[in-house]
Amino acid sequence: MKIVFALSALLLSFPVLSAEAEMDHSSMHMGDSSMDMSGMDMSNGAMDHSGMDMGKGSMDMSHMNHGAMSMGSMGKSGKAPPDARSPDYSQGRDFGPIAPPKMMGNGIMSSVLINQLEAANSNGKINSGYDVDAWVGTDWNRLALKAEGEAADSKLEEARTELLWRKPVDTFWNTELGVRHDSGKEKRRTWLALGIDGMSPYWIDLGGTLYLANQNRAALRLEATYDWRVTQRMILQPTVETNLYSKDDAERDVGKGLSDLQAGLRLRYEVTRQFAPYIGVESTYHYGRTADMLRAKGESTNSAVVVAGVRLWF
Predict the structure, then answer these.
(1) What letter does residue 249 receive in the DSSP assignment?
(2) Where is this region: Disordered (predicted)?
(3) 109-313 falls under which CATH superfamily?
């Protein structure tokens, strides 16, 4: 019961406290709240504060003349003169012994890639092979040289050399137009070449070239290469290449249709990006009319060899 009486007394005391805490605003006087600005000079776009009376709570701006305010110093609009910047962005500065900067892609560049320079032992013979891709030019127009061939006992067995004009059609694809020349121990042939090569999704290098020659001859070569990085320096490279012909060519042991397929697997170690020795295996398979021609001469239609070589880049 005593607790109830104590709580009742506490609740009854709150109105008294809040009444005493109220502020009486009735005694505040705001009537004398004007400021005389008649002495302000605005004629030159600047305000003279010497005549301002700040002793009272507000400003009387009834005598302010806004018409005399000048906005000329706020900034000017208009076009820049045609000679505001020099064409080469040098602003007339001399670079001294340093050559002036040039836009990338306009200069002449070059590259030589010896993708394969290898040797193998096949049926007691030392065979060697090469595969070269070189070019010179700009980003938009290049003269390219492709060369591939095999030799046995220091004698050239067969070779394919192509001189091409290479031009990009996309970020990752180039077109090629030129000539191909076949040489070696068999009859020589010259072809018109039209191809495309580049990098497909998943970083696979693809290439396809159509060849046309006299006597209504046509050929198609397709190839694919992939670099699988086992480590930052060790790369496993599978390659596949196949050739198709429209007519028999007995003088070069080539038959109509699917002629051959070459599949290789090479493991290289990049001592530097420009020098990488490798070892691997390569298999060659012949089909159709080409296989029949080889059997008629007593030669094998399939072969597999272990190769060792080096990959060079300049």
Answers:
(1) B
(2) 63-93
(3) monomeric porin ompg (2.40.160.40)
Separation CA 229–CA 27 (nearest Å): 89
CB 288 within 8 A of CB 295: no
Q: For residue 12, what are the CA distances in angstroms to 20, 23, 230, 270, 289? A: 14, 21, 87, 94, 118
What would the two tokens of residue 32 be?
């004398």
Each residue of 35-81: pLDDT tens digit? 445 445 544 444 555 545 444 444 555 555 554 444 444 445 567 66
Enter the DSSP assignment of 83.
T
- pTM strictly above 0.85: no
In the chain, where the domains are located: 109-313
H/E stretch holding 293: helix 288-296
Burial class for 208, CB neighbours closer than 10 Å (0-12, 13-18, 19+)? middle
Q: What Rg value do the Cα atoms of the chain yield, rounded? A: 44
The conformational region for residue 298 under phi > 0 = left, psi -120 to 50 = alpha, else beta, is left
- Judge contact between 313 and 292, C-beta under 8 A: no
